[in-house]
UniProtKB/TrEMBL annotation:
<keyword id="KW-0862">Zinc</keyword>
<keyword id="KW-0479">Metal-binding</keyword>
<keyword id="KW-0411">Iron-sulfur</keyword>
<keyword id="KW-0004">4Fe-4S</keyword>
<keyword id="KW-0456">Lyase</keyword>
<dbReference type="GO" id="GO:0008270">
    <property type="term" value="F:zinc ion binding"/>
</dbReference>
<feature type="binding site">
    <location>
        <position position="407"/>
    </location>
    <ligand>
        <name>[4Fe-4S] cluster</name>
    </ligand>
</feature>
<feature type="binding site">
    <location>
        <position position="263"/>
    </location>
    <ligand>
        <name>Zn(2+)</name>
    </ligand>
</feature>
<keyword id="KW-0784">Thiamine biosynthesis</keyword>
<dbReference type="InterPro" id="IPR002817">
    <property type="entry name" value="ThiC/BzaA/B"/>
</dbReference>
<dbReference type="InterPro" id="IPR037509">
    <property type="entry name" value="ThiC"/>
</dbReference>
<keyword id="KW-0949">S-adenosyl-L-methionine</keyword>
<feature type="binding site">
    <location>
        <position position="95"/>
    </location>
    <ligand>
        <name>substrate</name>
    </ligand>
</feature>
<feature type="region of interest" description="Disordered">
    <location>
        <begin position="428"/>
        <end position="477"/>
    </location>
</feature>
<feature type="binding site">
    <location>
        <position position="66"/>
    </location>
    <ligand>
        <name>substrate</name>
    </ligand>
</feature>
<dbReference type="GO" id="GO:0009228">
    <property type="term" value="P:thiamine biosynthetic process"/>
</dbReference>
<feature type="binding site">
    <location>
        <begin position="179"/>
        <end position="181"/>
    </location>
    <ligand>
        <name>substrate</name>
    </ligand>
</feature>
Amino acid sequence: MTQLQRAREGTVTDAMERVAEREQVDPDFVRQQVADGQAVIPANVEHDRLDPMVIGREFATKVNANIGNSDEAGGVEAELEKLHAAVHYGADTVMDLSTGGELDRVRETNVEHSPVPVGTVPVYEAVKRAESVEDITTDLLLEVIEKQAAQGVDYMTVHAGVLAEHLPLTDGRKTGIVSRGGSILAQWMEENGTQNPLYAAFEAICEIFAEYDVTFSLGDGLRPGCLADAGDDAQFAELETLGELTRTAWDHGVQVMVEGPGHVPMDQISGQVERQQEVCDGAPFYVLGPLVTDVAPGYDHITSAIGATEAARAGAAMLCYVTPKEHLGLPDAEDVREGLAAYRIAAHAADVADGREGARDWDDALSEARYDFDWERQFELALDPERARSYHDQTLPGDNYKEARFCSMCGVEFCSMRIDRDARDADGEMTELETGTSAADESAAEVNRPPVGTHETDGDPSLADVDLGREYPSADD
């Protein structure tokens, strides 16, 4: 039985217990959210190394990291390095979007070593196996989907909402169909003159997913690829179909989340999130960005993190990161780090703004360490401890500066916090400050606590050549 089926019958599974522990909530609350389709626990029964997590608007905002190779770049070892960079820097899930060589080996290696859910887009493999797009068959698609499910993939993006009748609605766009899966299926329908095979075979896919407890990530194949195309008829026509497919999957006991855009002006983001929640009956919304401007190639991790924060505040449950290489090239491990930093900031900022219990205690603890000039504690509490320490040590590397009451920005004379502390220590009219926040003792979800390094590599010979740097300290250290 799937997590959804067990939740409906009133069973709190081991995965739900673990999720409740990580989110600091009652296990039956997790069960009820899953039973109602408002949250998903992507947990393929064949993924032995998985540490279960939950995606839903009533839980801490999650972040996905896309990895994967292409015909131009990337191999198994490079993808393994990216996987572990993603987990090390705080990804809640990873998607293997490989389209190059050794697809099976890359996928199997990722599942074998990943403690977080792994997602895929099975139509990519179908394209690689067929001689051309028009030669893809329904049987081939089902064969690929079942194989990937048996390999332990936890969730799959299935672009079943792109229908033949939607394609004319993309006429007049500036950037056409920018989803890889969406463009492949559009080409297939144009050349074969029949309906989307993923839509036609959707119930057969549901049966496979139910067997392995794979979660649907219903793809937005007609998402806008620029601001000008946001909120058009094509995007919203597909969304209506995704609502229909959500209910069909639920009827088969299969968990569902729904993917969203894309490129959206900032003033439209909250309305689009609210529309998805209404059309898809509250199924978790998983958004790419959205990018709030189109003018910043090389900095799209920033343009999209702005939109991601707004989307999460409006109710998006998981954010798909964008790296600095978006639109330009295949990300490497350092790009994964940059993208995750931007998106973990976005997710945490939204959780703080939404009043998520315990979320701001992390901020308060770091602020108190900063005011106390406790540099080591600042580094430990930083979202990226290695980066914080490195930047500090570029100008003041000596151990004596770890006890200094200033940094190189203001120097000794103009450090505002030192001046303020000295004034308070002079027993004047200024009173004591509020201190004593412990990020380790509050009830926030794990993603709203200082980073802890959620994977271990000691003794694993397959990771001998993967340099992950030091592990993050525990919040209790």
